[in-house]
């Protein structure tokens, strides 16, 4: 990876994958702006608070951090135990507002890496359903879409599907207008504080089944190197991709019959 110190914004730096991401860059000597809804004690150069549910809060942050950044690592998210409106506002709209607001503040050659989830794996099949959500650019639009959404379909999955599609649609214009790449990573289950909420909202049996299939849940150390790489100059020609980081679980589900060894 490049040896010059870089300037990195980590959103969701207060816990879990985001805290580990901020710690990696901080340890390397990069300038890290750690952002979270909670007051921060993650090692970083500077800390700021933002509520991703609130466009004004995001706007205030973006208006005061200056330009010359190399990476937006947008990690923050909430599980399906949160109210549906919050799930969509934080996991989809909040990322969108941060990403589009950061584009003019990022250096050419910089990038956005957002954390989606394997829970968003059905994004292709769901395109007809979520077009209206991806058209929504503010909280009232998100809530209007939600009011007519398919009852019972998990808002968490929807939020990550929309994020994956949105990032793909942003990646072309971000590249041609700003020289900035946009990618997502989609972890399977990761051992972080959010995991017990996932067991509640997705079912412990389902998560245990995933663990049994690939041998263990991942740790933050399995995820952060992919964020690091996608955000680095070495990934200069990787744009608009969604990288599943799940020990191969999704591949084994969608790839057809396993090769017999
Ligand atoms: N842990 C997993 O199993 C797993 C799996 C797939 C994807 N993910 C995704 O990874 C990301 C990070 O999750 P994690 O496992 O580190 O969880 P975590 O709960 O440890 O961290 C999430 C962080 O987001 C912050 N946050 C929540 N709401 C916010 C808001 N309104 N404004 C600003 N910050 C807010 C929290 O304060 C927290 O610091 C999330 O987007 C999550 O959906 C996690």
The helix/strand series, from N terminus to C terminus, equals EHEEHEHEHHHEHHHEH
Name the hetero compounds present: nicotinamide-adenine-dinucleotide
- Could you tell me the radius of gyration in angstroms? 17 Å
- Outline the biggest β-sheet: 7 strands, parallel
Query: Which CATH class applies here?
Result: Alpha Beta
- Report strand %: 15-25%
Strand order of the largest sheet: 3-2-1-4-5-6-7
CATH architecture: 3-Layer(aba) Sandwich
Total count of helical runs of at least 4 residues = 10
Structural class: alpha/beta
Gross morphology: globular
Mean pLDDT: 96
Total number of domains: 1
- Tell how many strands the DSSP assignment holds: 7
Helix content: 40-55%
The stretches of 5 or more residues where confidence is low (pLDDT under 50) are none
Straight-line N-to-C gap: 36 Å
**What is the third-level CATH name, the topology?**
Rossmann fold
**CATH H level: which superfamily?**
NAD(P)-binding Rossmann-like Domain
Task: Describe the secondary-structure layout.
Blueprint: E1 7-11, H1 16-28, E2 31-36, E3 46-49, H2 55-64, E4 69-74, H3 84-102, E5 106-115, H4 123-135, H5 139-147, H6 155-178, E6 181-187, H7 195-202, H8 204-214, H9 220-230, E7 242-245, H10 249-254
Parallel strand pairs: 1-2, 1-4, 2-3, 4-5, 5-6, 6-7
The structure holds nicotinamide-adenine-dinucleotide.
Residues 12, 14-18, 36-38, 50-53, 75-78, 90, 115, 117, 187, 189-190, 192-195, 198 line the site of nicotinamide-adenine-dinucleotide (NAD).
In short:
This protein is α/β, with parallel strands linked by helices and 261 residues long. The protein contains ten helices and seven strands. It has one domain (7-248): Rossmann fold.
């Amino acid at each position: 990876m490049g040896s010059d110190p870089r300037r990195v914004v980590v959103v969701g730096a207060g816990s879990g994958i985001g805290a580990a991401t901020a710690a990696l860059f901080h340890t390397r000597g990069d300038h890290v702006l750690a952002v979270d809804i909670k007051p921060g004690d993650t090692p970083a150069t500077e800390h700021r608070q933002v509520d991703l549910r609130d466009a004004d809060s995001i706007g205030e942050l973006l208006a005061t951090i200056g330009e010359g950044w190399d990476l937006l690592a947008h990690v923050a998210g909430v599980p399906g135990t949160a109210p549906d409106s919050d799930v969509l506002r934080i996991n989809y709209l909040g990322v969108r507002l941060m990403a589009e607001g950061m584009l003019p503040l990022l250096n050419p050659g910089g990038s956005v890496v957002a954390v989606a989830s394997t829970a968003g794996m059905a994004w292709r099949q769901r395109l007809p359903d979520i077009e209206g959500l991806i058209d929504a650019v503010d909280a009232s639009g998100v809530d209007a879409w939600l009011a007519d959404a398919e009852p019972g379909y998990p808002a968490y999955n929807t939020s990550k599907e929309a994020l994956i599609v949105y990032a793909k649609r942003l990646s072309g214009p971000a590249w041609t207008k700003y020289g900035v790449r946009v990618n997502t990573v989609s972890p399977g289950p990761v051992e972080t504080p959010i995991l017990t909420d996932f067991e509640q909202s997705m079912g412990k049996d389902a998560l245990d089944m995933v663990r049994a299939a690939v041998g263990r849940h991942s740790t933050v150390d399995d995820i952060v190197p992919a964020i690091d790489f996608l955000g680095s100059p070495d990934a200069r020609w990787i744009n608009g991709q969604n990288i599943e980081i799940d020990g191969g679980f999704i591949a084994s589900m969608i790839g057809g019959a396993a090769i017999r060894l």
